Amino acid sequence: MVKICCLGAGYVGGPTMAVIAYKCPAIEVVVVDISIVRINAWNSEQLPIYEPGLDDVVKNCRGRNLFFSTDIEKHVGEADIIFVSVNTPTKTRGLGAGKAADLTYWESAARMIADVSKSDKIVVEKSTVPVKTAEAIEKILMHNSKGINFQILSNPEFLAEGTAIQDLFAPDRVLIGGRQTTAGLKAVKALKDVYAHWVPEDRIITTNLWSAELSKLAANAFLAQRISSVNAMSALCEATGADVYEVSYAVGKDSRIGPKFLNASVGFGGSCFQKDILNLVYICECNGLTEVANYWKQVIKINDYQKSRFVNRVVSSMFNTVSGKKIAVLGFAFKKDTGDTRETPAIDICKGLLGDKGQISIYDPQVTEDQIQRDLAMNKFDWDHPLHLQPMSPSGVKQVSVVWDAYEATRDAHGVCILTEWDEFKTLDYKRIYDDMQKPAFVFDGRNVVDADKLREIGFIVYSIGKPL
Ligand code: NAD
Ligand code: UGA
Description:
By secondary structure, the protein is α/β, with parallel strands linked by helices. It is built from 17 helices and 14 strands. The protein folds into two domains: 3-199, Rossmann fold (3-Layer(aba) Sandwich), CATH 3.40.50.720; 242-464, NAD(P)-binding Rossmann-like Domain (Rossmann fold), CATH 3.40.50.
């Protein structure tokens, strides 16, 4: 029986390994983590991640061939294939701070693997890493290997949160990069055999190590670039009277461009797009490719511009100040169908409104008050470190409240900002909301989810992204 161990029971490690266990009953999969709390949650009824379909997959194989454990060394020692799916955040200090990937977690995982291994291993990079990371990992493993053979593979993950199970069940492609040597190709084949249990062979792409590592950064950069492109158009639409929905529909009909990922929004969020582009920019700079670095930097600049443009619009429409006004924020997660708030645009929007002394009342169906307060108290890129003071106005009055109902959030509010496209926001009783709000009642739809004309009939003043007033 092949034994797999995965280091890192996060958004990627947990669902990915659960699906491997589900699809390959003859393989034993153990997911380990340094966080006891996370492992306990994976072993409980309340999984640490909200992801449609995940509960069923986990319940189907947990205790059969899927296990979650904190006994890292034991399971690493016993495994044939070790996936490393630890976090690779942006460095917050030192060389490359604010851009380069922080590989501390990866390096300590590699050192531990070298220490405890007693048999040959295939070590798989599942985390998103800078190009040439495999070379560094190889050095760490080989220099401590005591004659053990380690083969490093790059097998980046392309799942998106909210659709992780669907993406893992039917991936567009699985990418495996390895050394082009006999041992390297044998390792690639071993990993390919795992995926071949359910992924058609023509969807399993094999490449050299550096192509696989770079393809992941490139894919995220291309995806984020599409969003920044449509968001840049949304600003032009607002200035000219064009409708961004109509423009992106017309553009996406070109089969060379395609219709997906062209929704204008308040800006992209999530743990990876910004981090991975910054990482790409840093690699370009290190290679002396200033123009290429500047090209990709612009994707982030437009994203930041879109968020600040939204805040400016809210404040300027509400007579140039939101000081002392209650603003309801509907949605805090970075997209629908997840409770993840990492780099969510809602953080920057809320901070912008707080900066103008607004009183914000937040409702999100999947994000806890504790998480929101923590996010609003944190510095950029600090989400891996604990630091949690509740933001207070100078008078000591709470400026942020978190409630468990959209109607509670909007009661007595002057304005409503929709920041996540949760389906339930489409079907709220907006007449009831309007009746309970201060007048004039504003709606700022950062996701274009409401029917603006219907809301205007009720009496709202509605601002949608990239649409005429
Ligand atoms: P995460 O923070 O949710 O999970 C990482 C886990 O690794 C944490 O639970 C942490 O405690 C654990 N960990 C850290 N060091 C460890 C060690 N030495 N041993 C064992 N466990 C350790 O992160 P994530 O969202 O799952 O992302 C992981 C990687 O996958 C990142 O590189 C990310 O860029 C990439 N990725 C993420 C997504 C996504 O949708 N979140 C998609 C594709 C790729
Ligand atoms: C993204 C990629 O889609 C995955 O392929 C990749 O594996 C992952 O990053 C990663 O490396 O972490 P994810 O961030 O989970 O997945 O979610 P997306 O669906 O890509 O959305 C990212 C952000 O872009 C969200 O804030 C979303 O609301 C926004 N978005 C997306 C738009 O504003 N417009 C769109 O048309 C699409």
